[in-house]
Backbone:
């Protein structure tokens, strides 16, 4: 009876427990980049249709599509699964996040007409977004946090599967 209950247990939440790639695929920090891109353009998701539409109240502070794409692509350089799985220290993280923010400000100053930058508040606002997202994403790699989590999940699921193989292969204590 105990064997039967064990064999009917649900699978690990990440599919095939022997497939590290399935776990890694679920880490998708670049979703926030699309959200930021659309919000920078003054768009909001229409709840009824699920499509992005321009919000007339946000239109005056929005930047151009090319500006939103350039800034979001800059953020995307760190906001990805590879970065999340890296091993970085705090000093490197802070230096990289600041560098991305600095580059974003430089891009906005050089391309202010094309990006439709109309005031200094937009510069500061976008600089804060770039720094915050870069910093938060890079912090995920601090002390191998996500890497360790994935390794422990993989190890745990492997142990569960091995235990299942032992139980189904021979009757224990009989």
Residues:
């Amino acid at each position: 009876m105990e064997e039967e209950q064990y064999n009917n247990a649900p699978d690990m939440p990440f599919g095939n427990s022997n497939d590290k790639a399935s776990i890694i695929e679920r880490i998708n920090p670049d979703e926030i980049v699309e959200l930021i891109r659309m919000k920078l353009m003054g768009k909001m998701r229409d709840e009824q249709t699920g499509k992005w539409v321009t919000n007339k109240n946000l239109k005056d502070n929005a930047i151009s599509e090319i500006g939103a794409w350039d800034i979001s692509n800059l953020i995307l350089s760190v906001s990805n699964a590879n970065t999340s799985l890296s091993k970085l220290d705090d000093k490197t993280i802070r230096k990289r996040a600041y560098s991305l923010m600095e580059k974003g400000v430089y891009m906005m100053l050089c391309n202010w007409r094309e990006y439709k930058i109309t005031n200094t508040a937009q510069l500061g606002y976008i600089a804060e977004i770039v720094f915050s997202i870069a910093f938060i994403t890079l912090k995920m790699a601090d002390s191998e946090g996500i890497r360790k989590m994935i390794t422990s999940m993989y190890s745990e699921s492997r142990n569960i599967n091995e235990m299942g193989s032992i139980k189904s292969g021979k009757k224990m204590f009989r």
Q: What stands out?
A: Residues 2-169 form one domain. The two ends are 14 Å apart (CA to CA). Residues 1-18 have pLDDT under 50 and may be disordered.
